[in-house]
Design a protein that fits this description.
365 residues, alpha+beta, Tetrahydropterin Synthase, Chain A, 13 helices, membrane
Length: 365
């Protein structure tokens, strides 16, 4: 314990006073006691300084020799399996594992190489177990950085890290993941297309095609200059609304639907009419039997042909022939063929009877 100079002087002053009082009590002259008191004060102060100076000087540190740590050992590893977020897929780690003792006095492990491999596998597994195998290329750099720092193993025996690490997955798994990614992308596009189609159907059914009026306004809004075309499509839009809503056409627009149906029937009859082969044959027959541009003769022959058709029961064909060639119903006296028979030299009706061959019967003998 060190005492300050002020405290030491105070103590020596008190001692000197006591010495002077003791000397006066014993009858010793006071001036004889003063040198003694001064000797005590000065001599004690010097002795105190000497002792304190010895205590302040620190002992010299013992000499120590520096021992460098042992060089690290390495082992090359290939294909260490690491877990991923998908239980059916594994990462593969390749690289060089490095380890060393944490200090010169650390106790060596009987199998330091295996301990280092296990320690590094545990570190890498904690890093990859929650990652997707599809992100292997992104994880490779991050894992290499994480494993490059020395870390003690779970026993504290070694410090372990890795160099030149490569993270990969098997080629078959990469192919499967690429196929799954392509299917997932196509499915996502298909889902968007289906959603778009559903929205479009809902828009047409629940907004546009709710009533014929809304459909007409919607169609006109596509191009406000097509007023006449829109009016002509009212019947079509009315039928479209009825089909979309699964109901009858609104009574207000029934007339537009009837007009549309009648016009469609007319167009359909005109478009689907095919030439009648029978009428084509009649045309050829007329051209061969009567002179060209011979109206009365053609009408008379058409009347006769119509009559033959009527006798055969084909009244519809007879009507078509009369209408086609403008043949009225002639009497026998009005017939052109009857007048031709009445001309001189023309054979009479009796001459055209079967079996006569146009000659008179022989006279009776």
């Amino acid at each position: 314990m060190m005492v300050s100079d002020k405290a030491y002087l105070t103590v020596t002053a008190v001692v000197s006073v006591l010495v002077l009082m003791l000397a006066s009590l014993t009858g010793v002259a006071w001036w004889l006691s003063v040198p003694f008191c001064l000797l005590i004060m000065v001599g004690g102060l010097l002795a105190k300084r000497h002792v304190e100076n010895k205590r302040v000087v620190a002992p010299a540190p013992p000499s120590m020799s520096y021992q460098p740590p042992p060089p690290p050992a390495t082992v090359s590893v290939q294909g260490i399996a690491l877990p991923s977020a998908h239980p059916d897929y594994r990462f593969l780690l390749h690289g060089t594992i490095v380890w060393r003792l944490p200090g010169p006095h650390a106790s060596p492990h009987p199998r330091p190489e295996q301990l280092a491999i296990d320690a590094l596998r545990e570190r890498a597994a904690r890093f990859t177990e929650g990652e997707s195998p599809a992100d292997v290329d992104l994880l490779a750099t991050r894992l290499g950085t994480e494993l490059s720092f020395p870390r003690p193993d779970r026993t504290g025996t070694l410090e372990v890290w890795a160099q030149d690490t490569i993270l990969a997955i098997p080629d078959d798994d990469r192919v499967r993941l690429n196929k799954i990614a392509a299917v997932r992308k196509n499915e996502e596009v298909w889902d968007h297309e289906r959603a778009y189609e559903r929205n479009k159907r809902a828009y047409l059914r629940d907004d546009v095609l709710t009533t014929t009026s809304s459909a007409v306004v919607w169609w006109l809004a596509q191009d406000t200059t097509r007023v006449s075309d829109t009016v002509s499509l009212i019947g079509t839009l009315a039928q479209l609304v009825a089909a979309a809503q699964n109901r009858e056409v609104e009574p207000l627009f029934q007339s537009f639907v009837r007009d549309l149906s009648e016009a469609g029937e007319i167009v359909e009859r005109g478009a689907d009419t095919e030439p009648d082969p029978d009428l084509d044959a009649l045309d050829r027959l007329m051209a061969n039997l009567v002179p060209d541009d011979s109206g009365p003769e053609q009408a008379d022959l058409a009347d006769r042909l119509a009559g033959i058709a009527e006798e055969a029961g084909a009244t519809d064909l007879a009507s078509v022939i009369r209408e086609r060639f403008g043949a009225p119903v002639f009497t026998e006296q009005d017939s052109w063929f009857a007048g031709l028979a009445a001309q001189p030299g023309a054979p009479g009706p009796q001459d055209s009877s079967p079996g006569t061959n146009g000659t008179s019967p022989p006279a009776a003998g």
